[in-house]
Design brief:
single chain; about 280 residues; mainly alpha; Arc Repressor Mutant, subunit A; 3 domains; 3-stranded antiparallel β-sheet; globular
Length: about 280
């Protein structure tokens, strides 16, 4: 899990921007042989290089599946680089957030959100979130991660919403002392459609439809910082518009509400709509 190897640090907008720029032409920038050059390029020590690589990987912006020594931009990373090379758009950071929420390598980022109250949005102490994390995530050898590793990683996630980090100005999370709670960000149709596509691809890849209760179990409402009832209202409203028929449909029944996925319910399609047509939602 990439974020559990991030040296306990958040990442900056500049580091993410620089990473996308460099990896586009230099796939071996993170290799051991290029350590000195990488430190100069990123203006960072060796530990921070690990932080940058971990966040880029966890957010599905880069991948080294073809060669362990080389990283390349994913289709998502290429879409961000092409449509917002300076990473100035709020839509870019919504896409970044949702990629982390639905990623194999991003824990404890998703658990951080699902541990927060999404109805009353009460304050939750960080220690209580940490308690939920203990004994939940395992290493490849089957052992649980150490308490110090979990505490460090959780701290890095929490700090992504403080001190002028780019995710802070989306209004996803509010912090107060040692407590956090879900915020009330502005949700646009493009954000919701991309969230549904991410969920479908990550959780229901081969399913043409799912019940609404299955949708809520993925944490989608938490990731959008709304209650399940609010999510249902958004889906119902979008169902009544022709703009999203090819992405998904929402059916209400006496016993079971359901979501059916259309041919354009694909993250590569919806992220372009988000980046190219999504309105500004900065606070």
């Amino acid at each position: 899990m990439a974020l559990l190897n991030n040296q306990g640090e958040p990442v900056s907008k500049w580091w993410i921007t620089k990473g996308l720029q460099i990896i586009k032409t230099d796939r071996q920038i993170f290799s051991t042989s290029n350590l000195r050059r990488a430190r100069c390029e990123f203006i960072a020590g060796s530990n921070r290089l690990g932080t940058i690589k971990s966040w880029l990987s966890a957010a599905q912006l880069i991948d080294n599946g073809r060669n362990s020594r080389e990283y390349e931009l994913t289709n998502f990373g290429l879409a961000i680089s092409k449509n917002d090379s300076r990473l100035d758009k709020s839509a870019t950071w919504w896409a970044f957030h949702l990629a982390l929420c639905f990623s194999e390598d991003s824990q404890p980022y998703p658990i951080f959100f699902t541990s927060l109250e999404n109805v009353s949005k009460d304050w939750v102490k960080t220690i209580d979130i940490f308690s939920k994390l203990l004994g939940t995530l395992k290493q490849e050898n089957g052992d649980f991660y150490s308490d110090s590793t979990m505490e460090s990683s959780l701290s890095s996630v929490r700090r992504m919403f403080k001190d002028d980090r780019p995710l802070e100005d989306l209004g996803l999370v509010e912090t107060q002392g040692d407590s956090v709670r879900l915020g009330s960000p502005k949700l646009t149709d493009e954000i919701i459609a991309h969230a549904v596509a991410r969920m479908k691809f990550h959780c229901f890849k081969s399913r043409p439809s799912v019940s609404f209760s299955e949708v809520t179990q993925t944490g989608l409402a938490h990731f959008l910082c709304c209650s399940n009832d609010e999510l249902r209202k958004h889906l119902r409203r979008m169902e009544q518009s022709n703009n999203w028929k090819s992405c998904f449909s929402f059916t209400e029944a006496v016993n079971v509400d359901s979501v059916s996925f259309g041919e354009e319910c694909d993250p590569q399609t919806t992220v372009l709509k988000l980046l190219q047509s999504g309105e500004d939602t900065w606070l």
